[in-house]
Specification:
The complex is a heterodimer. By secondary structure, chain A is of the alpha/beta class. Chain A has 22 helices and 30 strands. In chain A, α7 (292-308) packs across α18 (595-605), α8 packs across α19 (615-625) and α9 (350-356) packs across α14 (458-469). Chain B is α/β, with parallel strands linked by helices. Classes of the chains: A alpha/beta, B alpha/beta.
């Protein structure tokens, strides 16, 4: 480690490692140097000239965003020359700015407004005609208002460098320069909206949010996205029990500035007109609205009689419900209904990985490890489609740390563009491709292996053997599909596993076995759609469904309870890396209840005492009883993510467990995704015009 | 084609072959010392060549006047990366037309200069970046390169020396900004022509992030003579700290405009009266743009100076790229200021705020003042806005727009005031003039 550099900023002594930019060094002592184009993590521009500072002995003001700290350097960020330069720069900027702040979406959270407020140029001397260009719609979710644009090029850079999409560029020259999609008039991209979030002004606006409200009229609720398994924090802007927008307001989540289309816009299923808002009971073959009490009484009576008659009750849990709900549900099923038949849709062989890692410590990768590892091996997964945030992390690691990425995939993936090596392997032969990579991987010093459902069962053990054989620290990441797929398994929604991967005393039926069992007396489906493509073999089974929508499974139900989505409840979820985070209730939807409340009501109707029914208290139970979940509550309460230590020991393996990813794309999200209009409206969505 | 016959007051070094029959051909070049300097250089070490160039006091002829030998010595020769030579032939500074005659009349001199520079840093690839508007020059240059290849002066194992060098032309697409060296490199690499953050300078990280010597056409053209006759001889022609001759592009209200080769330190009034043949129609001198439109303008009474770097700096202007424009008493300075600003506004690349917004604002303001609409405060505002750009832009284009504007407003403010004092009826603008000039 080389010696730190000593410099003085505004009379304060500052120490910074060599190579630090003056703008960053100033931040360490609480001195803010204003800038528009400078954005940590993206390439340097020095275009906005807002960060000009006085440096002793320099003939003119220098841009702090490209100036490296130097020994003995004396910097003044508040000299009269600097203060005047800033004010002049803002005057230039405002000369062609429309100043339509009263109607601008960004009003109130605009960096240009804040800058002018702080640094002056409140009076306008510009009396000429301003340039005007009409607003353009680039896609259903992205609008561009060129006159507001200050040309900081953040959007171009986040798209190019951050996402690797390169959808934006610049046309024309000088004052007529304009940010333009590289496709000409429209975007063909991930539709992630990162360009909107990163825009310091109101030039890029969201097709969903624009002209809906003022920022200060909303409540900002930071919660966890309910779609894929990456566990990104999304901040819901809620006004009068309505989600107006999702964005990355304070960048405090594990995802930093990243959000994909689902995290940003995929909340609109909440208000879908087909949302169930009343319990439905089948009467004479038709589903009819019923009161909560009558529906609950019916189900309670039916479950009780089936249970006492020794009938088989199969229960299918969800990959999106909270840990608390899953924990309570398995307790309900195993202790209340005395049934071992509980399962959920499994999308990755987490149990196999934990078993293979038995005896090893610190071998599970956290999200942050993808950004810091020297090398990464991605096997059988299209991260950019299914796990966009993990793809972003890996790309950022390559950009910032020159990490090496190795890809083993059956087709082209986005990581190919920067991967050190890509090996094409037909599905099922991924493991055979590894031997050839061993030497390169070993040389990197440490490694994170990311694998999808292509590696399962025995292959997981072979993969871990391969990793152990490298003789370097190796961490593993097993990809699973949805926001709480990982937590569902951790909480024992499996026929052979209790919470914390303890073996179940009696092995029940898997989802497939339940559906195929002609004698199944009852099927209770919570937030899942197992009958989407498979018919229920038992024609006499009493089917209870808790869901937001009338899915294929719900259409077969005898009783349907309208459930609340993840945005309408509190609790915790565990992402694909095993990091627990807290959901924050953003709103309530009339008629729907959180699944936990439905369980609790049903338990009361069945006169079962299954312990606490409040999320916080159940989480205490989970902390006390589930291996690895003894995380500090303060971390969660403050919006942090806590990595769960998995069970360190053998985990029983079930040959019957079918593991298959749903192969969602960026624009699908299982059954839930079908009810998001935005996901369906973008042209990149399956069936859209811009299929790649 | 020549603009003007040679003048006895000239010192002809770079232009000595001009006017010879088929001066652009290899035969004529070879018959007149052609490629001798390169062959001599192959027997010299890199250090010896750089030393000769340093001794010659050759300073960059593109406008900034950075000592060429020093620039060359910054190239990290031990770098494992390939090294490149790039010729800046994006001659776009208004008033400047010297690179054009050099390439047109003696293209092989440029090729030889490039070869010698290539020898210095062990580069084997070079480009001549020619502005797109010089379409016909690209053909001339391509023919010369072709001829050089055919006769073994380019390509592999040049004339048996074991030195390989590939050279080709590359055309710009009409952007003044691409004459700025780092923007030129971006454009050469196929990107948008915007300047780079410096450091690193091209010597360390130039074309394709490799060490690169990048100089103006005239700078490269001076090198063969320096090597052939020794740096000291070249230095002796000029003044201390600035050696040799430079090409003066003389235009404006004079009798014999043209490109003249004069030693550094040549008196400006002699240039106007002898080379230029005096003022057109015997009218009075009003002002001189000494070195291209980006240089602060000189009033007639300030023109009694010698044209070298130090004297010009003392007069608060620059030698620039040698584009000297002589203005007589009939010149409308308000209109002149507007014309200059229109150019820079049109050419501003838009990268940084002060240049992008400042040039447009000034253009609109000057358009209005030129129509006689405005107040005395508006005149002050021109001066102030230009001052707000000066020294704060990302690249020197903003300064280039600000400097002449400041000098014109300061030195000819009375003309602006007079324009505003015209009777109201004559000030009524045409309806179209008030609409945005976008």
């Amino acid at each position: 480690m080389s010696n730190p550099v000593n410099l003085t900023i505004n009379g304060q002594p500052v120490q910074a490692p060599p190579g630090t930019l003056v703008i960053d060094a100033a931040k360490t002592v609480g001195i803010q140097i204003p800038a528009f184009c400078y954005y940590q993590g993206l390439s340097l521009q020095a275009a906005c000239r807002m960060c000009l500072v006085d440096v002793e002995k320099a003939p003119k003001l220098l841009a702090a965003c490209t100036l490296l700290v130097g020994e003995g350097m004396v910097v003044n960020t508040e000299s009269p020359a600097v203060v005047k330069a800033r004010k002049d720069m803002l005057e230039f900027l405002l000369s062609n700015h429309p100043l339509d702040c009263p109607v601008c979406d960004k009003g109130g959270e605009c960096e240009l407004q804040d800058m002018v407020f702080r640094y002056g140029a409140g009076e306008s001397r510009f009396t000429e005609v301003k340039l005007h260009v009409d607003e353009k719609q680039w896609s259903p979710v992205v609008f561009f208002d060129a006159p507001r644009c200050i040309l900081c090029y953040r959007c171009v850079r986040i798209c190019d460098e951050g996402l690797g999409v390169k959808a934006l560029g610049i046309t024309n020259r000088g004052a007529y320069s304009e940010i333009t999609p590289n496709m000409g008039t429209h975007l063909e991209c991930d539709e992630c909206g990162s360009c909107i979030d990163i825009c310091p002004v109101g030039a890029l606006t969201s097709g969903i949010y624009r002209y809906q409200t003022r920022p200060w009229e909303m409540e900002h609720v930071g919660t966890i996205c309910t779609h894929c398994g990456d566990g990104c924090k999304t901040t819901l802007g809620v006004r009068n029990s309505e989600i107006i927008r999702g964005n990355n307001r304070d960048r405090s989540g594990i995802n930093g500035e990243f959000l994909c289309i689902k995290g940003r816009y995929g909340f609109d299923f909440v208000n879908h007109q087909e949302r169930l808002q009343s319990p439905l009971v089948r009467v004479d073959g038709k589903l009819e609205e019923a009161s909560w009490s009558s529906a609950l009484a019916l189900v309670a009576a039916k479950f009780s009689s089936i249970e006492s008659a020794g009938g088989k009750i199969g229960v299918v849990g969800s990959s999106r419900t909270t840990n608390e709900e899953n924990f309570y549900l398995q307790k309900f099923v195993r202790q209340g209904l005395h049934s071992p038949h509980i399962d959920h849709r499994r999308s990755g062989d987490v149990a196999g990985l934990l078993d293979a890692l038995s005896g090893k410590t610190g071998a599970l990768a956290a999200t942050a490890d993808l950004y810091t590892a020297n090398s990464l091996l991605v096997i059988g997964a299209d991260l950019a489609q299914q796990h966009p945030f993990l793809a972003f992390q890996i790309r950022a690691n390559w950009r910032h740390h020159q990490s090496r990425t190795y890809v083993v995939a059956s087709g082209p993936v986005r990581e190919d563009s920067f991967a050190t090596r890509t090996v094409q392997a037909a599905p099922g032969t991924e493991m055979d491709a590894l031997a050839g990579l061993a030497d390169s991987l070993r040389a990197a010093g440490n490694l994170v292996i990311v694998f999808g459902d292509a590696v399962q069962g025995d292959a997981v053990r072979r993969l871990v053997d391969f990793g152990s054989g490298l003789g370097i620290p190796v961490k593993y990441l097993c990809l699973v599909d949805y926001s709480n797929s990982r937590g569902a398994l951790d909480m024992g929604l499996a026929p052979d596993l209790l919470p914390g991967y303890r073996p179940a005393p009696e092995t029940g039926m898997t989802v497939a076995q339940m559906l195929a069992d002609k004698d199944l007396a009852a099927l209770w489906v919570v937030g899942a759609n197992p009958l989407e493509k498979t018919a229920l073999a038992s024609s006499s089974a009493f089917v209870v469904v808790q869901d937001l929508f009338l899915t294929e499974t719900a259409q077969r139900a005898d009783v349907i309870f309208p459930a609340a989505s993840a945005y309408e409840k509190n609790g915790t979820v565990t992402n694909t890396c095993g990091e627990v985070q807290r959901l924050q209730k953003g709103l309530g939807v009339m008629g729907a209840k959180p699944d936990l409340d439905i369980f609790a009501l049903l338990a009361r109707h069945m006169r079962l005492n299954l312990g606490a029914t409040q999320p916080d208290k159940i989480f205490e139970e989970i902390r006390a009883s589930v291996s690895g979940y003894n995380v500090a509550p303060m971390v969660l309460a403050t919006g942090g993510a806590a990595l769960t230590n998995p069970v360190n020991g053998r985990v029983p393996q079930s040959a019957a467990a079918a593991i298959a990813s749903s192969r969602d794309t960026l624009f699908t999200s299982g059954t839930l995704g079908r009810y998001s209009k935005i996901l369906g409206n973008v042209m990149e969505a399956p069936g859209g015009l811009y299929q790649r | 084609m020549l603009y003007n016959p040679p003048h006895p007051a000239e010192t002809k070094i770079l232009t000595r072959r001009f006017g010879l029959p088929n001066s652009e051909s290899l035969d004529t070049y070879l018959a007149n010392d052609g490629y001798k300097a390169f062959l001599k250089a192959t027997g010299m070490t890199s250090e010896q060549i750089v030393d000769e160039v340093k001794i010659s006091n050759l300073r960059g002829r593109g406008g900034a006047g950075f000592p060429a030998g020093m620039k060359w010595s910054f190239v990290p020769r031990q770098s494992p990366k390939p090294k490149y030579i790039v010729v800046n032939a994006d001659e776009s500074e208004p008033g400047t037309c010297k690179d054009r005659v050099l390439m047109e009349n003696d293209p092989h001199q440029l090729i030889e200069g490039v070869l010698i520079a290539g020898k210095v840093i062990d580069a084997h690839r070079g480009w001549i970046y020619i502005r797109g508007e010089y379409r016909y020059l690209i053909d001339i240059m391509d023919r010369a390169i072709d001829e050089a290849y055919k006769n073994g002066y380019l390509g592999r194992n040049i004339r048996g020396t074991g030195f390989d060098f590939e050279l080709s032309t590359h055309t710009g697409a009409g952007a003044y900004e691409c004459g700025e060296e780092s923007a030129l490199l971006e454009s050469l690499e196929g990107k948008r022509g915007i300047p780079r953050i410096r450091p690193p300078f091209p010597a360390v990280s130039g074309a394709f992030q490799c060490p690169t010597i990048l100089n103006n056409v005239e700078t490269f053209c001076a090198v063969p003579s320096i090597i052939l006759h020794g740096g000291q001889k070249f230095a002796d022609v000029g003044v201390p700290k600035a050696g040799g001759t430079r090409l003066l592009c003389l235009s404006g209200h004079i009798n014999t405009p043209g490109v003249y080769e004069i030693p550094l330190g040549f008196p400006m009034m002699r240039a106007i009266n002898e080379l230029g043949g005096g003022m057109l129609g015997g009218r009075k001198l009003k002002a001189v743009v000494p070195g291209g439109s980006s240089c602060p303008i000189l009033k007639a009474e300030e023109c009694d100076i010698n044209m070298d770097y130090d004297s010009m700096a003392k007069a608060k202007t620059m030698l620039g790229s040698g584009g000297m424009v002589v203005l007589d008493e009939t010149t409308d300075m308000v209109q002149f200021a507007l014309r200059i600003m229109r150019f820079y506004q049109h050419e501003s690349c838009g990268w940084c705020i002060p240049c992008r917004e400042g040039t447009l604002w000034l253009r609109k303001l000057l358009t209005r003042l030129n129509q006689g609409i405005g107040t005395s405060d508006d005149i002050s505002m021109v001066r102030e806005l230009a001052g707000n750009m000066l020294g704060r832009t990302f690249c020197p284009l903003g300064d280039a727009a600000a400097m002449p504007t400041i000098s014109i407003v300061e030195k000819f403010r009375d003309e602006f005031e007079a324009r505003l004092a015209r009777p109201a009826s004559s000030r009524m603008p045409a309806p179209g003039d008030l609409v945005s000039i976008a």
